[in-house]
Amino acid sequence: MDFVDEILYGEYNYYTIDSSEGTFLAVVSSSYEDLGSLEKKLVSLGLTFVGTRESEPEDWFKNIITEPFEMIDGIIVDPENHDLSDLKGKIILKIPQGLAFGTGLHQTTKMSADYLRKYLKLGMDVLDLGCGSGILAILAKKLGANRVVAVDNDPLAVDVARENAERNGVDIDVRLSDLFSDVEGKFDIIVSNIIAEILVERLKGAKMFLKEDGGVILSGIISPKINLFENYNIIEKTVIDEWCALVIKI
Ligand SMILES: C[S@@+](CC[C@H](N)C(=O)[O-])C[C@H]1O[C@@H](n2cnc3c(N)ncnc32)[C@H](O)[C@@H]1O
């Protein structure tokens, strides 16, 4: 279903269900119109439409997961407000399951989180480009970052990221911005989990937002698209399932 990932990734919350009757795709949107045009596109590509149903967004996602889970080693995501005070030495991210991407369950978020933990040193400045729920920006702050700016071009994501920053008691500058358009200053790390085609075009422009020794963490790259980045100075690469993450020096 690579082509489905390419169409939906970063734009919709979706997941697949394998059953004895085949593989089903579920897509969530707050807009019927949006789903209507998406349905036409997916059907034209050979998928069979089964149906739609209405549900409260919060309840819908809560049906999927409510219990805390270890996103990566030592970093726990708590979708609800559990008392986790006895979990010593772990970083806790309070991220309710919602309509903004960034629940902590996707491989691309996990790979970015892993690289943040590896490369982020105390006091660094971090830009999260395409912040969704704000999960990576919040993690950056909890790992000891100084200035953290988180941007998204989706107003819903901006609202959710702001709420999540407050929920986690961290100070993050969350902005509505198309990539770098409303960003100023320089950063030690730019982390971005956005589909590859969007990123590769604008990556050269990232240099003016990077400090001298800064680097870029990218995920959201579907494996066959990795060659789009072959002209960049790739420091490290991780592949999980069909997804890649890169650390790049520009
Ligand atoms: C795959 S999600 C990543 C969310 C979160 N950072 C994570 O790693 O789980 C990608 C996010 O990028 C945002 N996005 C896509 N294109 C963008 C653009 N041109 N400028 C800013 N944000 C964008 C989407 O709205 C979405 O919230």
Query: What would you call the structural class?
Result: alpha/beta
Report the average pLDDT across residues: 88
Strand order of the largest sheet: 8-7-6-9-10-12-11
Please report the number of helical segments: 7
SSE pattern: HEEHHEEEHEHEHEEHEEE
Total beta strand runs: 12
Short description:
This protein is of the alpha/beta class and 250 residues long. It contains 7 helices and 12 strands. It folds into 2 domains: 2-54; 102-249, Rossmann fold (3-Layer(aba) Sandwich).
Which SSEs are present, and which pair or pack?
Elements: H1 2-8, E1 13-19, E2 22-28, H2 32-44, H3 57-62, E3 69-72, E4 75-78, E5 91-94, H4 107-119, E6 126-129, H5 135-142, E7 148-152, H6 155-167, E8 173-176, E9 187-193, H7 196-202, E10 210-222, E11 233-240, E12 243-249
Parallel strand pairs: 4-5, 6-7, 6-9, 7-8, 9-10
Antiparallel strand pairs: 1-2, 3-4, 10-12, 11-12
Helix pairs in contact: 4-5
The structure holds S-adenosylmethionine.
S-adenosylmethionine binds at residues 10, 100-102, 109, 112, 130-132, 135-136, 151-154, 157, 178-179, 193-194, 198, 220.
